[in-house]
Recover the amino acids of this structure.
């Protein structure tokens, strides 16, 4: 096949998906300034001060093109205090060993797969790992059932292609190709939602560390420092099972649900505080009691038993993850700040909790009513909350 024929083939198969893909400048995240007022800055911007302090204090060996040593990356994720007293806030609350395995995997030639049920911080950890290792968490492919091969390999800028024929200037690199060329970290979200044939495009990349561009008779070879972090949801298992060939290229780290209620309260409190600050919500006096209640309810319904183990409960259809607890509390804080007296009260979280529990209305409503009448109603100190729930469900 001639060059022009192969380009033609590529263009007909990609026209519907990449025709509007803009040519994105490389390394948008690394070093790029965040415009004021961005709703959610990337991790490398939000925590730039911590990353700078860590880089200054970190005198351990760094793998090629890493901004920090593996120790520095793990400390960035798990938190700690530097010799000069700088406090590094924990981003991930969970087993230290898991983070160490994840970080050291990235320093090898195997890619990292973060697996777990929804809301276990897979995306969050992946973003922070990329930010700490490469200073850029933006080289991201979002996996869906419609993710085309171009999102993993490369596409074409058709104006350039028509005007000048196939050339490097007409090539639109995927985030993965850019990470290979720059020696940085690429991220693939929801890997198992991507159709199997598109997933297979990753096999050559991960095993041969090269991405051929037959149209140009060229290839892009990964430079040292390149690696890939993928996330996949346990619940999607069986949608597009990873082929064994691809699975062998990954080290899998399973992120668990928080082990104890205290750990989960800690995670929710930290994240709510951060989100509240970014949304300019007025600071609320201690909301720990209400946060603990949300976490208790979510854990009991998730586990199908009360904390004391005395009663069995039915579980609702939704996941009731830590991420949802964070949303419920953030919503509650907005209610308290704008329509209440600024203190997080039972009435501020009741509607949110019910909304999270009652999804598939027929069965979930029964589950919730039963929980309300048998557990909430009888529990010491939960009367206000019981009344607030009755009000919202009336
Ligand atoms: N162990 C944890 N430590 C710190 N934050 C956590 C933890 N578990 C959950 N979170 C918080 O939960 C939120 C959601 O996490 P994230 O979106 O990364 O979940 P996910 O596992 O990717 O979920 P999904 O499978 O739905 O994509 C984040 O704000 C994150 O901070
Ligand atoms: Mg995710």
């Amino acid at each position: 096949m001639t060059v022009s024929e192969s380009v033609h083939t590529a263009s007909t198969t990609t026209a519907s998906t990449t025709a509007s893909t803009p040519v994105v400048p490389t390394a948008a995240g690394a070093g790029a300034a965040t415009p004021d007022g961005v709703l959610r800055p990337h991790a490398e911007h939000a925590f730039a001060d911590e990353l700078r302090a860590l880089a200054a204090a970190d005198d351990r060996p760094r793998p090629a093109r890493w901004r920090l040593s593996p120790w520095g990356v793990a400390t960035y994720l798990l938190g700690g205090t530097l010799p000069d007293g700088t406090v590094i806030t924990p981003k991930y609350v969970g087993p230290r060993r898991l983070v160490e395995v994840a970080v050291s995997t990235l320093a090898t030639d195997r890619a990292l797969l973060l697996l777990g049920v929804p809301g276990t911080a897979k995306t969050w950890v992946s973003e922070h790992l990329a930010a700490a290792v490469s200073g850029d968490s933006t080289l991201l492919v979002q996996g869906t059932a419609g993710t085309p091969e171009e999102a993993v390999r490369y596409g074409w800028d058709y104006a350039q292609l028509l005007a000048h024929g196939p050339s490097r200037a007409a090539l639109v690199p995927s985030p993965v190709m850019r990470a290979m060329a720059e020696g940085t970290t690429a991220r693939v979200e929801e890997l198992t939602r991507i159709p199997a044939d598109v997933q297979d495009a990753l096999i050559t990349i991960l095993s041969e560390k090269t991405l051929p561009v037959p149209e140009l008779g060229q290839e892009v070879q990964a430079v040292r420092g390149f690696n890939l972090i993928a996330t996949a949801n346990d619940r999607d298992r069986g949608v597009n099972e990873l082929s064994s060939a691809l699975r062998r290229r990954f080290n899998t780290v399973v992120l668990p649900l928080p082990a104890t209620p205290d750990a989960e309260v800690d995670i929710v409190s930290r994240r709510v505080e951060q989100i509240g600050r970014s949304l300019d919500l007025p600071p609320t006096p201690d909301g720990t009691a209400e946060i603990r209640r949300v976490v208790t309810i979510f854990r009991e319904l998730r586990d199908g038993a009360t904390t004391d183990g005395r009663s069995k409960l039915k579980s609702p259809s939704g996941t009731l993850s830590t991420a949802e607890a964070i949303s419920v509390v953030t919503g509650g804080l907005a209610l308290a700040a704008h329509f209440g007296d600024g203190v997080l009260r039972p009435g501020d979280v009741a509607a949110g909790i019910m909304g999270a529990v009652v999804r598939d209305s027929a069965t979930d409503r029964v589950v919730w009513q039963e929980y309300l009448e048998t557990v909430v109603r009888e529990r010491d100190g939960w009367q206000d909350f019981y009344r607030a729930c009755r009000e919202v469900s009336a």
Residues 92-94, 116, 118-124, 231, 233, 258, 267, 271, 322-323, 326 surround adenosine-5'-triphosphate (ligand 1) (CB under 6 Å).
